[in-house]
């Protein structure tokens, strides 16, 4: 599992008598979660800011109801099945990239099933820092075929090996995502 760092506390704003926060952001153990304030929250833009707010909304098509970048990234991680794993090579400290299959747990953390025989596993044994980049394979919305025009997300963190009940649960999740991954139960594969 790729650990992405310690959870942060809830971000809140002090309320002014005439307005409520437009957006609440929480850094949960699995990453940021954003939620728009419900329409019935009586959000009122102060009089002095209405012209600028109207101009901003008009210049940003689709802003109302659009997911945040964090939500889009988490969705892409959940939908993609393979990614590029980058580790720090034990031979010279150069970046080493490899293609891996992965799944995500119930809070959105990537689950990797890696063989002890693989170069990336050797690298991770020496330095647990890594990044994982997932991307769309094709854009259904735009029909784009240029890979640089497709959505992509990179997560950085420290890879930790799961043991006991955590490993059992992660293996179940991984096998649900990759039912043909018979190798996941082999003794030289780690989650």
User: What fraction of the residues are assigned to beta strands by DSSP?
Assistant: 25-35%
Rg is 21 Å
Output the number of helix runs: 4
Shape: elongated
- Helical fraction equals 10-25%
Uncertain residue ranges: 5-41
H/E series, N to C? EEEHHEEEEHEEHE
Observed structural traits:
alpha+beta, six-stranded antiparallel sheet, 28% strand, 23% helix, 191 residues, two-stranded antiparallel ribbon, 10 strands
List the helices and strands and how they pair.
Elements: E1 2-3, E2 23-28, E3 31-36, H1 50-59, H2 69-79, E4 82-88, E5 95-104, E6 110-112, E7 114-115, H3 119-126, E8 129-135, E9 152-159, H4 164-177, E10 189-190
Antiparallel strand pairs: 1-9, 2-3, 4-5, 4-8, 5-6, 7-10, 8-9
Give the gist of this structure.
By secondary structure, the protein is α+β, with helices and mostly antiparallel strands. Helices cover 23% and strands 28% of the residues.
How would you describe this protein?
With 191 residues, this protein is an alpha+beta fold. The longest helix has 14 residues. The termini are close together.
